[in-house]
Write a structure and sequence with these properties.
single chain; alpha+beta; Peroxisomal Thiolase, Chain A, domain 1; nine-stranded mixed sheet; five-stranded antiparallel sheet; 15 helices; globular
Length: 529
Amino acid sequence: MLNLTVCQAFNVADTGTAFPSGRPGWLAGVGVVDYTPLGSFLTDRQKLVVTPTRRKAEQDGSMSTSRGILAYGVHLPYNRLARSAIGEVMGSGGGRGHRSVASYDEDTTTMGVEAARRALAGGVPAPEAVWFSTVAPAYLDKTNATVMHAALRLDSLVPALDFGGAARSAIGALRTALDGPKRTLMVASDIRVSLPTGPEDGGGGDAAVAVLVGCSEDGPLLAEYLGGASATAEFTDRWRTPGSDHSRNWEDRFGEQAYLPLVRKAWAEALATTGLAPDDVAVAAVTGLHARATRKAASGLGVAIAGDLADTVGNAGAAHPALLLADVLDAADPGDVVALVVLADGCEVLLFRATHALAAGRPGRSVADQVADRADVAYARYLTWRGLLQVQPPNRPGPNRTSAPAALRRTAWKHGFVGSTDRTTGITHLPPSRVGISGGTVDDMDPTPMADAIGTVATFTVDRLAHSPSPPVVFAVVDFDGGGRMPIELTDVDPTAVAIGDRVEMTFRRLSTSDGLHNYFWKGRPLRG
């Protein structure tokens, strides 16, 4: 693959070194070639830098095996906001369809954990690295990917890193993983927030996607990575300063003028470096946060365009490229060439070919399945969940901040939901115990992961007085299949519909936040689908 990057060619006044206009040159192995300016806003001093990557590796023999997607998983929140509800409350804004809404106990980290669990559920090999990308991190300074690492119970030698700051970081992380040598789990997650009646109030969406990238030696590839291209230019069509919770945009026509030349160049270069023609591409997923430029770019590719999920999910920002790719792979046939075109501070183009392993390797719940499984949330409740509408808090005191030393000591239980089973009696203890409930030898226990266990509600209560950002709270005593019983909080549930005998599965959520520290643990949710 050849990566295209638009950069500035400096003149003598800039650096003391000149590359005269109309005269090609080479600098540190990077080719500088002339090209027509990308628009009236670019000067004739700008050059197109072509950096050999995948194609060069294939030619010199350093890449002897195919790379691509080993597994993928998607998490769409259960809650949806009908856009018509915005206009009913505010008198303006809204529109048709729904947007996905992360619940009050979800953030980009918890959603990323759920997507990663789905990606790794099929018995695929464990990742050798975890990369997490979001523009709405639960923490700054602290690495958010380490929470995901703990929830997935990965070995401590597996690095966990954050890729953040911009929506482009997510697709950049995926492309870097595809070009790299390791088996990497790339997770993209986003929660889009706007002021009431703002463009992303109804047009945004919340989602998370995990993609396990590796080579054919790691296992059967679901989609082989063929290559692609990347084009970059400096222009400001969208920005958000630190501390702000919503983005701002420049005038639409400017973004269209900036993006379209970059899309054309990246698309042409991606086809050229992979030896493909537009007729070879079965479908292209085209996305970006600039809707007008995205629509215009899609119409000029000369291939079939995949649905953008705008009416059912909204634009999930950093997670949306991988979300559309997953949706396309859910329906792709073996041999289909799939293109992913992303407009974000430039253009990224990735090309894949679906394999015969795709049908057997798809996740248990497709994007369409999760789109259909939903419950509507009132607009006022949505605003309170996002902190945009302050309401009277519960009368009971809020929770204390979580203890970092205690969390470290019990991380296998707190983050991994690992209980213990007595070797003598076979009784599973939740939380884990050093001594069995029926006595026996101290520390004669086997660790028992329970995150994937299914349980049955033995009894429950609906507490309308407990402290919660979204009362009431539903607590249930759950009997797990294969052993183990414990009281847990239920989420994504209608309090009036809970019944003894309901089947539940576990989900990673945020119990509370106090003094800036998030208290993560596991809750139960109704088993659906």
